[in-house]
Amino acid sequence: MKYQIMIDIMMLLLSKRKLTAQQIADKYDISARSVYRYVEELNVCGVPVDVVRGRYGGITIADTFRLPTGYFTREEYASCVNALQAMSSQVSDASIVSALEKLQRQQKQEKRELSVCGNIIVDGGTWGDSKSFSEKMRVCEKAVNERQSLFIDYVSRGGTHSKRVIDPHVLIFKQNVWYVYAFCHTKQTFRTFKIGRIKNATFTGNTFVKREISRDELDLDFSYTSEELCEVTLEIDKNSLADAEEWLGIDNIEPLGNAFIARMTLPDNGGLVNKILSYGGAVKVLQPAALKEKVTAAAKAIAEW
Q1: What is the Cα–Cα distance from 170 to 37, expressed in whole angstroms?
Q2: Which of 93, 100, 264, 266 is deepest in the core (most CB within 10 A)?
Q3: Taking a C-beta distance cutoff of 8 angstroms, is the pair 135, 64 a contact?
Q4: Residues ≥6 apart with Cβ < 8 Å to 130
Q5: Whole-prediction pTM value?
Q6: 3-state SS assignment for residue 254
Q7: Most confident by average pLDDT, 47-56, 80-89, 161-170, 266-275
Q8: Residue 233 pLDDT > 90
Q9: Distance CA 36, CA 51 (A)
Q10: What are phi and psi of 188, to 5 degrees?
């Protein structure tokens, strides 16, 4: 019975997206305290159910959350919906109507949502995408287009979680990474959020007035401080040229003998060393000396591990 109620609460939230604890308690004839206990257990199971207090209060489930692909196949969904539709036309049962509504709201779309603008098609998903990132892109894009505020759970590079309400104004794609530029209600100013670092996102139900933003106003060096950027010279083996071009851009690489040279400014925040090592010796650091020492030290640590 306990687990059935948990599943019912999850499906109800997938259908309604936000309810009060008392509404859920009344529906299943349990106490509000029991509702909060079920919410905690759903979180332990990996279902992003959140208790939001204050102005946007209620028990919510992230709009970026969908049931696992294996929960039902598309054909199974269609069969269940058809059977319930036939049954509901013959039998007046509120539980059948409720089940039908939940299935119809959750019916899978096998094609990934694509953003289309003129002659440009943007696929927000990654290779082998489990659709979690695609869902974040879908929600952020909808928020921008329809001027809807989002309640997000954001994880910083240092691993710190913060929950805040944002007004998404524009999506930014830079260096193969998606960002959303939004007004942050917590900081009361505009911030740039990496979409991949948004753990969950939920529509608040409120809309906002979009402010005019020109291209010149956007600081597209938002991800790094000047201290994290350094002038780098890399030597690239010709056998790894194609991969390096995708990473650094073909305009930044020029031939030199049997190899290739790249001179550019890159963020030296720890990830750069790992990126260079991922080429297995096909990318060598010529300058600066400090970066070369970091790569050498990291390679030795790997060899000694």
Answers
A1: 38
A2: 266
A3: yes
A4: 69
A5: 0.58
A6: strand
A7: 161-170
A8: yes
A9: 8
A10: 55, 40
How far apart (Å, rounded) are the C-alpha atoms in residues 265 and 109? 42
Between β-strands 148-155 and 120-123, what pairing exists: parallel, antiparallel or unpaired?
unpaired
The dihedral sign for the CA sequence 177, 178, 180, 181 = positive
Higher pLDDT, 7 or 194: 194
Residue listed under structure tokens 């009060």 = 20
- Do 63 and 202 form a contact (C-beta atoms < 8 A)? yes
CA gap 10, 177 in Å, rounded: 32
CA distance 237 to 246: 14
Sheet harboring 198-207: ordered strands across?
Answer: 189-194, 177-184, 161-174, 148-155, 198-207
Domains along the chain with CATH numbers: 2-61 (1.10.10.10), 69-106 (no CATH), 114-217 (2.30.30), 226-304 (3.30.70)
Distance CA 260, CA 279 (A): 14
Instruction: Report residue 76: phi and psi, to 5°.
Output: -65, -40
- 266 bridge partner residues: 230
Q: What is the pLDDT of residue 94?
A: 73
Cα–Cα distance measured from residue 197 to residue 281, given in angstroms and rounded to the nearest whole number: 30
CA distance 167 to 184: 7
Smallest Cα–Cα separation from 245: which of 267, 256, 266, 260? 260
Name the token pair of 109. Answer: 């779309």
CB atoms within 10 A of CB 42: 19
Structure token digits, residue 93: 């049962």
Which parts of the chain are beta strand (E)? 18-19, 49-52, 58-61, 114-117, 120-123, 148-155, 161-174, 177-184, 189-194, 198-207, 229-237, 253-256, 259-267, 283-287
